[in-house]
Design goal:
Amidohydro-rel; seven-stranded mixed β-sheet; Metal_Hydrolase; EC 3.5.4.3; alpha/beta; TIM Barrel; about 425 residues; binds guanine; Urease, subunit C, domain 1; hydrolase; binds fe (iii) ion; 16 strands; about 35% helix
Length: about 425
C-alpha cells in the first residue's frame, strides 16, 4: 500500500465535488490485485488508521482524478491546426492524406509513443481513441498503452467507401481484421476494443451491418463513431439514406446504438434523436474545441439535460486544437454560454470538471472504475500545481470557494499545471 498527502479533489455524485484541503489518498491492491483507492479523506482522520503505510507528501499541490478523453484520433497528432472550410474539405485535404502513413508499423509506433506521452503530460489517463484504418496502427497504439498500463480503448477505423486509396479498406477484410483485433486486445490488462465505423458516408451498408453484428456478438466492446457534426455531412447522409428518419437513426438500424456506444459531436440532433440516445444507453462525446475550430456548431447542453442522455468531454484532436483538458473545459464553458442562441447557461466549474472525469467515465460504462478517487476506483491521478504560473498563483490564492478555485484553473490552466501523472497499475508515469 502507498498513501499520498495533498489537497484532494474527488466526486461523490454528478457535478458534486469534495475538496479536502489537507487530504490523504490510500492506494493498495483489491481482491483481484488491481491497485485501487482504499480510502480518501482528511489527513488527520485517515493517518492514524494507516499508520504503517508510507506517505508521499505534495505540499501546496492538488491531487485530482486523471482526466478521461471520450474521443480522440491518434493518427491526427500532426493534423492539429490544419485550416479548412469545414469538416469535409478538412478530411479530404489533410486528414485522409495524413492517415495513409499509418500503414507503416514503424511510423505508427513512433506516433503512438509521442501520442501517449502527450496524453500523460496533459493529465489524461483514459481515452477512447480512433486509430487509422490499418490494423498495424491499432497494434502500435495498444502496445504502447500496455507499456504504461493505461486504461485505453481504441479501434481500427472502418471506411470502405468515399475515401481515397491508402485509407479505404475492403468490406470483408475490414470485419475479419476487426474481430481478430477484438480477440487479440480486448480485456488484455486495461485495454478495450472499440468497433469504429468512421461515419455513415465512409461505410457501405454491408460494412455497417457487419459492424452491428460484431457489436451484438461482443457486447463488452465499445463502439465509436461520429454523428450530426456538420450540415454538409448531414445532407450527404440524407442523400445516401433518403428513407431514414435522421442521421442517428441510420446507426440504430444497423444495431450500433447501445451502452458503450459513443458518438462524437451530436450537435445537430432533434428531440427524437436525443430520446433515442437516452433509451439505448448511447453516449455523446462533446468536442468543443473541434466544433469551434471547424465551425461545426454548438452542442445544446440544455436540450441534452432535458433528454437525460449521457455525455462527457473530448478533445477530438486533430479536429480539436489541444490535448489539454483545461482548454477543452474552457471551450465547453464558452459553448454553454452560446446556448444555441436561446438559453445561454453558465456551466458550473464542478460540472465541467465532472464531465471530463467521473461523468465521462460513466458515459463510457466505467463508473466507479476510472475518473474518480472514491474507494474501489483504479487510482489514476494527477498532481496539479496551482502555482504553475505567476498569474495562476495570484488568482488561485484569492479563490474564496471551491468553484472559484476550479474556475481559475479551468480558465488559466494548461499542461504547465500537471506536475505529475500517476497510473495506478504502473506507478509514476511522468
Ligand atoms: N467525421 C468523420 N471522420 C472525422 C474525423 O476524423 N474528425 C472529425 N471531427 N469528424 C469526422
Ligand atoms: Fe473525431
Amino acid at each position: 500500500m502507498k498513501a499520498y498527502r495533498a489537497a484532494i479533489l474527488y466526486f461523490t455524485g454528478p457535478a458534486q465535488a469534495v475538496y479536502e484541503a489537507d487530504g490523504l489518498l490510500v492506494v493498495g491492491p483489491d481482491a483481484q490485485g488491481r491497485q485501487v483507492a482504499q480510502a480518501v479523506g482528511a489527513y488527520t482522520q485517515l493517518a492514524p488508521r494507516f499508520a504503517e503505510v508510507p506517505i508521499e507528501h505534495f505540499p501546496g499541490r492538488i491531487i485530482a482524478p486523471g482526466f478521461v478523453d471520450m474521443h480522440i484520433h491518434y493518427p491526427q497528432l500532426d493534423v492539429i491546426g490544419s485550416p479548412a472550410d469545414g469538416l469535409l474539405p478538412w478530411l479530404e485535404n489533410y486528414t485522409f492524406p495524413h492517415e495513409k502513413r499509418f500503414s507503416a508499423p514503424d511510423y505508427s509506433a513512433q506516433v503512438a509513443t509521442f501520442f501517449i506521452a502527450e496524453l500523460l503530460r496533459n493529465g489524461v489517463t483514459t481515452a477512447l481513441t480512433f486509430a487509422s484504418s490499418h490494423p498495424e496502427s491499432v497494434n502500435a497504439l495498444f502496445a504502447e498503452a500496455q507499456k504504461h498500463q493505461l486504461c485505453l480503448m481504441a479501434g481500427k477505423v472502418l471506411m470502405d467507401q468515399n475515401a481515397p486509396d491508402g485509407v479505404r479498406d475492403e468490406t470483408g477484410q475490414s470485419l475479419i481484421d476487426t474481430e481478430a483485433l477484438i480477440r487479440r486486445w480486448h480485456g488484455v490488462d486495461r485495454l478495450g476494443y472499440a468497433i469504429t465505423p468512421r461515419f455513415v458516408p465512409s461505410c457501405s451498408e454491408a460494412q455497417l451491418r457487419g459492424a452491428g453484428e460484431l457489436a451484438a456478438q461482443y457486447p463488452e466492446v465499445w463502439i465509436q463513431s461520429h454523428v450530426a457534426e456538420n450540415k454538409d455531412e448531414i445532407a450527404w447522409v440524407r442523400q445516401l439514406y433518403p428513407e431514414a428518419r435522421s442521421y442517428l437513426s441510420v446507426y440504430e438500424a444497423f444495431g450500433l446504438l447501445r451502452p458503450r456506444a459513443v458518438y462524437a459531436h451530436c450537435i445537430h440532433l432533434d428531440d427524437e434523436d436525443r430520446a433515442l440516445l437516452r433509451s439505448t444507453g448511447t453516449a455523446a462525446a462533446v468536442s468543443p474545441t473541434s466544433n469551434l475550430f471547424l465551425a461545426s456548431g454548438f452542442f445544446d447542453y440544455a436540450s441534452a439535460d432535458r433528454a437525460g442522455f449521457m455525455y462527457g468531454l473530448a478533445s477530438d484532436v486533430g479536429g480539436g486544437t489541444s490535448f489539454s483538458p483545461f482548454h477543452t473545459m474552457l471551450a465547453a464553458y464558452y459553448v454553454g454560454r452560446q446556448g444555441q442562441g436561446k438559453e445561454g447557461l453558465s456551466l458550473k466549474p464542478q460540472q465541467l470538471w465532472w464531465q471530463h472525469t467521473a461523468g465521462a467515465a460513466r458515459a463510457l460504462g466505467l463508473e466507479g472504475v476510472v475518473g474518480n478517487l472514491q474507494p474501489g476506483c483504479e487510482a489514476d491521478f494527477v498532481v496539479i500545481n496551482p502555482q504553475a504560473t505567476p498569474l495562476l498563483a495570484r488568482k488561485t490564492a484569492q479563490a474564496a470557494s471551491l468553484d472559484e478555485l476550479l474556475f481559475a484553473l479551468i480558465v488559466l490552466g494548461d499542461d504547465r499545471l500537471i506536475e505529475k501523472t500517476v497510473i495506478s497499475q504502473a506507478g509514476s508515469a511522468g
